[in-house]
Every structure is written in C-alpha cells, then in structure tokens.
C-alpha cells in the first residue's frame, strides 16, 4: 500500500514522541524522507542517517517557525510532498470556567495557529509542484467535546473546519487535505507519572502501580467498542494511507481511529 511513498518528503510536527514519533518511523520504513520538527528532537537522529531524516528544534507558536521548518525541507531534500500537522497539547482543566484567556490563547497558538502556519508555509511549494498532501491530527473531542478539555475540544473542532477549507480551495490544484482523528490512544502521556493512567487509577480506586487494572476499569466503564486502547501504530498506519496515492481520491474527510467510540456515541 505504501510503495508510492518511497522517495517522497514528509514534514512531521510533534515528531519526537507518541503519534508523531511512530509516524516518523513508519514513513522512514516506507522509504520516505522526513523533516521531524519538535521543541526537542534529540532522539530523532538515531532513527536514520542524514540522507533520510532532518531534525529541527522549533516552537511552532513562534513567528517564522513554520517557514524555518519548510525551508529546512527544501534545503535538505528539495521538495515537500506531505505535511503531517501533529504538534499539539491537551491540558486538563477542571471545567469551562477554570480556563482563563491566557489558557485559551496558549492552546490555540499551538493547536490551531501552529497548523495554520505550517499549512500556509508548505502550500506555495506544493502548488509549484502541482501535488501535495496535508494531513492534520484531530480528535474525537473535535466532534464530541470532552468535559475536562474544553479549550482542546474547541481547538480540534476548528481543525475540522480548517481542513475542509483547505480541501475546498486546493484539491483542484492537486493538494489534498484530510484529518486523522484518534481517540483513546495509549501514548507516553498515559503512562508517565501523573499522567492519564494515574488519574484513571484514582478515579476507579485502583492502586497507581496497577496500570493494567486502571486500563481494565476504564475499558469496562467506557464500553469502548474495540475492547482495547489504541496504539500510536494504529494512527500512523492511517496517516500513511492518507499520505499515499492509494487515497488519491480522498480529500476533506475526518478519518476516525477511535475503536468505534465516535460512531457508538452518535447512535
């Protein structure tokens, strides 16, 4: 399915961990050259040689950062075929009223403006090439808001509309825009001290060192149709599908990688 990705060039933001890191690995395995952008990319150099990966430390909330990433791709590899807009944050909140103006601004600067800036940087290059792919990491929270993630939920809803606008305006120019929308993906944010699994353990009365027990309690309570948590590999495979020519007639969609949770909520 991914043979057509050999020799292409992909920008991956938020490339140093979780979904971004796994997607970077799968792109490299498919023969794709990767520009990996994150605030710290020290772990990316070990994935491949400089002929295949370019790691760039950058804060996408800062002016000029997106152009810096795009220029690194041109300088190193001469083109940009794929953008995976993935860098983002999901800060937990007590409720809607607890989110200050500053918190809203911080979330939108990264989760929304970071995506907009990166798309704005690469689209002119893709237009000149006559082809390109934009993929944005959304969330089920952009469809059904999470009560403890109000600003994050709104930011992901905004991404849905941004992708539709890009699809409307640029598909005719050979540039497709789609969203991959994960839910319940077990990344480092789940397992780190004070992470989501600790929160779940406290919620369900399970010892914090019993990570499997916390997951089991969550799955039973949430009744996630797939019966398991998702993995970064699940999401990365969907990203590579949307990046490949196999999906050449697909533009403007939201592809859920959520174990069936969103369809079950909509019935």
Radius of gyration: 18 Å
Overall shape: it is globular
Task: Enter the CATH topology name of the largest domain.
Answer: Rossmann fold
Distance between the termini: 32 Å
Biggest β-sheet strands, sense, barrel: 7 strands, parallel
Please count the beta strands (DSSP E, at least 2 residues each).
7
Q: Output the CATH homologous superfamily of the largest domain.
A: NAD(P)-binding Rossmann-like Domain
Number of self-contained structural domains: 2
Q: Which regions contain 5 or more consecutive residues with pLDDT less than 50?
A: none
Report the order of strands and helices.
EHEEHEHHEHEHHHHEH
Tell me, rounded to a whole number, the average pLDDT. Answer: 91
| Helical stretch tally | 10
Please report the first level of CATH classification, the CATH class of the largest domain. Answer: Alpha Beta
DSSP strand content: 5-15%
Give, in spatial order, the strands making up the sheet with the most strands. Answer: 3-2-1-4-5-6-7
Helix percent reads 40-55%
The chain-level structural class is alpha/beta
CATH architecture annotation name of the largest domain: 3-Layer(aba) Sandwich
């Amino acid at each position: 399915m991914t043979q057509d990705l050999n020799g292409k060039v992909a920008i991956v933001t938020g490339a140093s961990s979780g979904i971004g890191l796994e997607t970077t690995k799968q792109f490299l395995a498919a023969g794709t050259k990767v520009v990996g952008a994150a605030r710290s990319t020290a772990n990316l150099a070990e994935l491949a040689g400089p002929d295949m990966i370019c790691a760039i430390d950058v804060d996408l909330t800062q002016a000029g950062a997106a152009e810096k990433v795009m220029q690194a791709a041109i300088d190193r590899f001469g083109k940009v075929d794929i953008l995976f807009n993935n860098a983002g944050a999901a800060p937990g909140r007590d409720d809607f009223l607890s989110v200050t103006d500053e918190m809203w601004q911080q979330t939108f600067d990264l989760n929304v403006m970071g995506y907009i800036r990166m798309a704005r940087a690469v689209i002119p290059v893709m237009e000149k090439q006559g082809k390109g792919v934009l993929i944005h990491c959304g969330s089920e929270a952009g469809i059904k808001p999470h009560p403890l993630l109000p600003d994050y939920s709104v930011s992901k809803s905004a991404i849905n509309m941004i992708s539709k606008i890009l699809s409307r305006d640029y598909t005719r120019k050979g540039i497709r825009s789609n969203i991959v929308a994960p839910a319940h993906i077990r990344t480092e944010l789940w397992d780190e001290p004070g992470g989501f699994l600790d929160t779940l353990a406290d919620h369900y009365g399970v010892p914090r060192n019993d990570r499997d027990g916390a997951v089991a309690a969550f799955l039973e309570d949430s009744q996630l149709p797939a019966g398991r948590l998702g993995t970064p590999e699940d999401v990365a495979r969907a990203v590579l599908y949307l990046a490949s020519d196999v999906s050449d007639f697909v533009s403007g969609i939201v592809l859920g990688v959520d174990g069936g949770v969103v369809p079950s909520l909509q019935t």
